Amino acid sequence: RPVPGLNEVLVRVHAAGVNPVDWKTRASGALVEWGAVPAVGWDVSGTVEAVGPGVGLFRPGDEVFGMPLFPRQAGAYAEFVVAPARHLARKPAGLTHTEAAALPLAALTAWQALVDTANVRPGERVLIHAAAGGVGHLAVQIAKARGAYVIGTASAGKHD
Ligand SMILES: NC(=O)c1ccc[n+]([C@@H]2O[C@H](COP(=O)([O-])OP(=O)(O)OC[C@H]3O[C@@H](n4cnc5c(N)ncnc54)[C@H](OP(=O)(O)O)[C@@H]3O)[C@@H](O)[C@H]2O)c1
């Protein structure tokens, strides 16, 4: 069981998200360099087990989720993960751990494009290709929540 250092949190993992970057990292040879297993996995949701010195954001028992250390090694497929406190957010009570662990990478990809870069505003028209895909289904919801008029493309089997 890893020990949280300065400004770090130990998370008991309830769910880990699986993304294409996991197998791409495995295939890249990075594991040889990283050594320790489980080497891959970033998207994670769980409960704070312990906090290191300097952590004021969280306490043991808090439910958190995030994508710690990306693209450096986090090992989120493990039972316990150490993460910088600022790489985690509180899990909304309305989300299960499984749902929360599915969000970070795909949702941040959509958020960074639509909010940080495009700064989508109410009434703007947003075209989202692959609107039923991993990133796309989150992009649709973020753009709608920003008040945009959203047009999505998808192959016929995903139109509903
Ligand atoms: N998932 C992540 O966290 C993440 C992070 C960073 C970057 N990305 C990148 O974001 C893109 C989407 O990723 P994703 O995870 O959402 O993938 P995904 O869930 O596999 O969805 C991809 C969808 O793209 C559509 N598509 C495939 N070929 C197409 C083409 N030639 N023209 C138009 N649409 C096409 C298909 O949907 P239809 O069958 O409906 O056409 C396919 O299901 C990829 O380029 C990925 O590398 C993803």
How many distinct domains? 2
**Discrete helix count:** 5
Ligand species: NADP nicotinamide-adenine-dinucleotide phosphate
Global structural class: alpha+beta
Topology:
Blueprint: E1 8-16, H1 20-28, H2 30-34, E2 44-51, E3 63-66, E4 80-84, E5 88-90, H3 97-101, H4 104-117, E6 125-128, H5 136-145, E7 149-152
Helix pairs in contact: 4-5
Bound molecules: NADP nicotinamide-adenine-dinucleotide phosphate.
NADP nicotinamide-adenine-dinucleotide phosphate (NAP) binds near residues 105, 106, 129 and 155.
Structural description of this entry:
The protein has 160 residues and is an alpha+beta fold. The chain folds into two domains: 8-101, Quinone Oxidoreductase, Chain A, domain 1 (Alpha-Beta Complex), CATH 3.90.180.10; 104-158, Rossmann fold. The protein is built from five helices and seven strands; from the N terminus they run βααββββααβαβ. The chain has helices at 20-28, 30-34, 97-101, 104-117, 136-145; strands spanning 8-16, 44-51, 63-66, 80-84, 88-90, 125-128, 149-152. The chain has a five-stranded antiparallel β-sheet with strand order 4-1-2-3-5. A two-stranded parallel ribbon has the order 6-7. It starts with 7 loop residues before the first strand and ends in an 8-residue tail after the last strand. The model has no long low-confidence stretch (mean pLDDT 94). Residues 19, 105-106, 109, 129-130, 132-136, 154-155, 158 line the site of NADP nicotinamide-adenine-dinucleotide phosphate (NAP).
